[in-house]
Design goal:
It comes from Collinsella aerofaciens. The protein contains 3 helices and 5 strands. By secondary structure, the chain is an alpha+beta fold. The two termini are 22 Å apart. 27% of the residues are buried.
């Protein structure tokens, strides 16, 4: 299950909840920031846009996505590449 924080759409009106949810669930790469608690992911939405997202795992097992933007920043791509090299 995924829940999208309302701030995501307020800051990035071009992204709707369905776009972010699809990209989160079908992510291409991920970096675990806090194991079992926080992840950064990149993925493509149904429109082919590459999106960066950050979410936290809530106590009820739902991922709360509190940050999403397109395209992913260089900093995000670097963090994910570093995590991939470390095996996360």
């Amino acid at each position: 299950m995924v829940q999208i924080h309302r701030r995501v759409h307020e800051r990035h009106p071009e992204l709707d909840a369905g776009d972010v949810e699809a990209a989160w669930e079908n992510y291409r790469f991920a970096a675990v920031r806090v194991p079992g608690e926080q992840e950064m992911r990149t993925g493509y939405d149904p429109h082919g846009r590459y999106i960066e997202m950050v979410g936290v795992l809530l106590a009820d097992g739902v991922w709360l996505i509190y940050h999403a933007m397109t395209p992913p920043s260089k900093k995000t791509l670097k963090e994910i590449e570093s995590a991939r090299r470390r095996g996360y």
